[in-house]
Design brief:
By secondary structure, the protein is α+β, with helices and mostly antiparallel strands. Helices cover 32% and strands 30% of the residues. The chain is elongated. The protein starts with a strand and ends with a strand.
Length: 122
């Protein structure tokens, strides 16, 4: 059985991008996370020690996303996935969506970004 913990709409200002002004000024990114785990034990015990702290997930995500300036969203999202899987042994897999609503594209659009899924190797 796989259950899901989710965080949506995490807004982070960072300096990712290919263009100079993106790395100098930065911009707002929005991250959505789905963390796949088994929640049967915390559902039974009602103890925080038996699950994953949402606050710690947000702190880990923010640090991993901001610590390095990446040219590509793929690199930034990969760093978040690696950090989550290394810091939270209860998480079996993570799906990360990174939205870049102000990407420097000469078009009118609502959103652009990437979505990646990473899982623990057996």
């Amino acid at each position: 059985m796989t259950d899901t913990i989710f965080v949506t709409g995490l807004s982070i200002h960072a300096r990712h991008g290919v263009m100079d002004h993106e790395t100098e000024v930065g911009q707002r990114f929005v991250i959505d996370l789905e963390l796949y785990t088994d929640l049967s034990e915390p559902a039974r015990t009602d103890r925080l020690a038996d699950t994953v702290s949402y606050a710690e997930v947000v702190a880990t995500t923010t640090a991993a996303f901001k610590n390095t300036n990446y040219k590509l969203l793929e690199g930034a999202a990969g760093a978040v996935a690696d950090a989550i899987l290394s810091h939270f042994p209860r998480i079996r897999a993570v799906k990360i969506t990174v939205h870049k609503p102000h990407a420097p594209i000469a078009a009118i659009f609502d959103d652009v970004g990437i979505m990646l899924t990473r899982s623990r190797h057996p």
